[in-house]
Amino acid sequence: MSIKFNCTDVTGKQVVIATPLIDRLTAIVADVTTPDADREKAFSILKYVKQRQAESDGLPELDRAAHQMLVNIRIASLWTGDDRLVSVKTNNGTERLEIVTPESA
């Protein structure tokens, strides 16, 4: 799948961001034969994706596209690397997912 944005790049083409890892994670969550640990990890990452996408709502389209590119990079490190997600409380009492790297733990 790809996400199309209502803006153009410097060549005048519509900005389209491919999301192959998001597609893969969605398939992993849906596949009941996948080990539970992988399904839970994929579900948590997808929850993080939704959180980050919600944070970019209301921004100009080009900024939203940049946000999506960063999300794609971050989730790759979550899926294949040592980074992990933790739930933290914000100042207003809501919970959000944050990335913890081995260096910051």
Order of strands across the main sheet: 1-2
Sheet of most strands = 2 strands, antiparallel
Low-pLDDT ranges: none
Mean pLDDT: 94
Number of strands: 4
The rough form would be described as: globular
Order of helices and strands: EEHHHEE
Number of DSSP helical runs:
3
| Terminal Cα span | 34 Å
- Rg from alpha-carbon coordinates: 15 Å
Q: What is the number of independent domains? A: 1
Quaternary structure: single chain
| Percent in helix | 40-55%
Percent of residues in beta strands: 15-25%
Structural class: alpha+beta
Features:
105 residues; alpha+beta; two-stranded antiparallel sheet; 4 strands; 23% strand
Polypeptide structure, described:
The chain is built from 3 helices and 4 strands, in the order E-E-H-H-H-E-E. By secondary structure, it is of the alpha+beta class. Strands 1-2 form a two-stranded antiparallel ribbon. The chain starts with a strand and ends in a 5-residue tail after the last strand. It has one domain (2-100). Helix 1 crosses helix 2 (36-55) and helix 2 runs antiparallel to helix 3 (61-80). It is globular and about 45 Å long.
